[in-house]
Amino acid sequence: MGIEISQVSKRFGDFLALDGIDLNIPNGELTALLGPSGSGKTTLLRIIAGLDTPDTGSIRFFGEDATRKRARDRKVGFVFQHYALFKHMTIFENVAFGLRVRPRALRPEKATIREKVEKLLDMVQLRGMARRFPSELSGGQKQRVALARALAVEPKVLLLDEPFGALDARVRQELRRWLRYLHDEIHITSVFVTHDQEEALEVADRIVILNKGKIEQSGTPEDVYDNPANPFVYGFLGNVNLFHARKELTPNGGEIFIRPHDISLSARDDSGKGIPVRVTTHRILGNRVRVELETREGENIEANIERKDWNALQDADLSALYCQILQGKIHAPDNTWSNYVI
Amino acid sequence: MSAAPGHTLEPRWLKPVLITIALLFLAVFILLPLVTIFSQALSVNLQDYLAAALGYEGATPELPPLFASLGEGTSVYRAALSDAEVRAAIRLTLLTALICVPLNTFFGVLLAWAVARFEFRGKNFLVSLIELPFAISPVIAGLIFILIFGASGWLNMIPFGTQADGSTLTLYQWMDARNLKVVFAVPGIVLATLFVTFPFVARELIPLMQEMGKDDEEAALTLGASGWQLFFRVTLPNIKWGLLYGVILTNARAIGEFGAVAVVSGNVRGETTTMPLYIEILYGEYQFATAFAVASLLTLIALVTLVVKAVIEYLLQKQRTG
Ligand SMILES: Nc1ncnc2c1ncn2[C@@H]1O[C@H](COP(=O)(O)OP(=O)(O)OP(=O)(O)O)[C@@H](O)[C@H]1O
Ligand SMILES: [Mg+2]
Q1: Residues 193-252 in B contacting A (C-alpha not used; CB under 8 Å)
Q2: Counts for chain B of helices (H) and strands (E), in that order
């Protein structure tokens, strides 16, 4: 087992930021901590790094108790959202920092340091930048330097706090794929914080969903996406349409969750199970189209259909369409889920 | 109709008028006194010097001050510097600065670190306390030390053994018997100067360190740096110009402080007179020549400080803008 967190709580004044967190982070995997703003992701990550101390609970690294260990002795690499590069040092010196501050007996030779730094700069594709200063790099380059710097000390655990949060959408996507690729190469036990569910689903081996200082669910991306433990997780992992379930489905009341992707539109009701709707607005998002619909009862439904399906409706009367629900889930008041059968 | 960029709604004449007023004010109240000190120092001395050299008593031809300063400049200072009391004053001033500047630099950094990096109860109170030496009159700062260490101060109320006749011996009496004096002696001067110059470094560093944030230092920590490595390799390079700026201001004030030092000095000539105090004594005794010579020396230090300060400000600016 990689990192074992048990019963960790943290209070800031009257505010309970972490509430009895129990979590195991498997060795060699890339785990995403996902949750809305203020849910305690950064706090948990800082406690793992030893930058903050938990009020209660313990942390074990690879079977060894690390709760009382100082940050500098934990052998963790930490990557900050805003890079935290040393502005007065060159890229080379930044990456070499962790090796240079070692006690004399453990400090590598100058030539060894040079070799190692160059190898790392190669790895993050910044070979030619060694002599530049951080202010001369783009955000994406800075974050790769930060990663190289963290990896230089050969940490046992790599922690990343919204590493791509300050970057624009394109660079963000590029870098997260690159991170996944890098992780496949070096297999270091990693935890990265994000509030972007798409990022978590794309990159992580496991996703841990945090809300208000508690873990709502943890599992593989497919697992949490297909079998969300509760309405919060369902809603947090993507847009969702919510309907009150009819009495025939759940006698005690309950809710139906349907993702916009799981709705299709047609001009005629061939199956006989379609719901008559009219289009209120639509928005073309590249190869997909977001359509807002209204039922006869006045309920609003959001659908997200493919562009070609939308184009096929070109000649239809947009105020008299039918929507089919492809799949959905019913959440009963006793917190059990069932499939919505149409 | 469109206004030129940067041209706002003020009337056109406002800018030149304001600038002229500002410049005139600067010339009359700052530049003029400065020039006067130097020209006085040089010309008065030169006249004395000439009088002595030529054997005249009194009436020597009046030299235009600025012209006079061009000629025999250095000899004037040589004369002043050869005076034992002047030299003692310079020595004491430098000694005071030499003790106060490193101490206040050290404690200033310590305090700024504590305030910028940690949350604790009473932090706001501490921050306003740092400003106290600026807020109260220097005379009162001096009086505080008299109240503590003086013959009728607290020190004279602390029992410290018994005297030969059986009455209690106070700490003050005990120290007095061993000739350990605080007020009306060098320690008092150093203490008073420490007090009035305390805020400069801390005040300069606190906003700088707050702006810098904790991230860099935490990154260094996770990379295995020790506390010293963290300070010298990460924090210090980030705050060095601000720190130097604070040190320069501390030094300037330590050298120039009059009020607080005047109260605790007791003006023992050649022993407890700093340069500013000595200038005042000389002036009171109508020894204008020496007074102006010492004054111009002090002013020279101030001017050098000003230049160094300007350079550092420039570098600080450059560092901030990347
Ligand atoms: N040093 C602190 N002092 C007081 N409150 C804090 C401190 N650090 C965090 N908190 C509070 O704890 C809660 C959790 O904060 P945390 O930074 O862990 O959230 P987060 O999940 O990382 O959010 P974000 O996505 O916005 O970064 C927040 O409500 C925050 O206000
Ligand atoms: Mg955060």
Answers
A1: 215-216, 218-226, 229, 233-234, 237-238
A2: 17, 2
